[in-house]
Amino acid sequence: MTGxxxxxxRLREPFDHRARATAAGALDLRGRLARWRGRAPDKALAVVxxxxxHGANLRELAPGLGGAQRWRLFDHxxxxxxxxxxxxxxxxLRHGYRFTLDGTAGGLPAICIAGPDFxxxxxxxxxxxxxxxxxxxxxxxPLVTASALLDLVSASWxxxxxxxxxxxxxxxxxxxxxxxxxxxDPADRDDERVHGLFSQHQRRDKGFGPALGPEAAATALHQMxxxxxxxxxxxxxxxxxxxxxxxxQLAMVEGMAAAALEQSPAEQGAVLAWQARRRAGIGxxxxxxxxxxxxxxxxx
Length: 300
Ligand SMILES: C[S@@+](CC[C@H](N)C(=O)[O-])C[C@H]1O[C@@H](n2cnc3c(N)ncnc32)[C@H](O)[C@@H]1O
What we know:
Layout: H1 6-23, H2 29-38, E1 45-50, H3 56-65, E2 67-75, H4 78-95, E3 98-105, E4 108-114, E5 118-126, H5 129-132, E6 143-147, H6 155-167, E7 171-185, H7 191-202, H8 216-226, E8 229-235, E9 238-240, H9 246-263, H10 268-280, E10 286-298
Parallel strand pairs: 1-2, 1-6, 2-5, 6-7
Antiparallel strand pairs: 3-4, 4-5, 7-10, 8-10, 9-10
Helix pairs in contact: 6-8, 7-9, 9-10
The chain binds S-adenosylmethionine.
């Protein structure tokens, strides 16, 4: 089982946001969200967010979705779920939205956020998605979404999710799936070696069976097309450079080196030397990490 700390999610969120904002035009996100909303015009739009972490996907999508929205947020990590109300309230405050933690919805606290042209009610659920995906109810849910999840899951888990969504006629939006492209500028003689080990490590079981890692986006597109979805994909790469990016660059160097060492202890010398050179270059290099966003609309 992998752990994702709130600190890591906070560190990556500005890079996620920039990547998604840059790609929103190519994805026609506004138009697409409006069309998906149009499938249930009279009701609050029901949205499922899988592996929600501390709620970044809701923060990214809710203002663009507009109107009344009813979100169900699922994750297995109690610490991340406990952080959702505070994270959302800080976000709401920053943007001048009204935030309330309201009574209960089915025994769970409901978070309400009102912006100028949207109103969200969100409820968090603790669920092990690897084990309990089948128990989730997607009926009357026009949109199923997740960010930074697909590379963690297995092909068979993803197939179950696609079929379940197809049965519910839900549109799908999967953001920030890593696709294996990693580019440093300037390059280092051992980048390829470390990236190769890192990619192999990404394919280890993260609790869902053998992880798709860099194959996730291609597998998702294939499975969605097989289920009759009309799909579009857009690159949402992290661009990690400039003075604000040093902590993120360091986190990437440390994460890649740790994974590479675990994957191939015999290559310790080369990996540690790469890590030392990359640490020395923090702040004076540029890193691009490839991601893909996929939107899938029921085509039947
Ligand atoms: C990379 S984080 C992405 C979080 C969030 N969607 C975001 O974009 O910031 C992956 C998330 O998957 C969750 N996760 C991993 N395995 C899970 C499982 N078996 N069941 C539910 N959530 C899981 C983690 O707790 C974490 O919140």
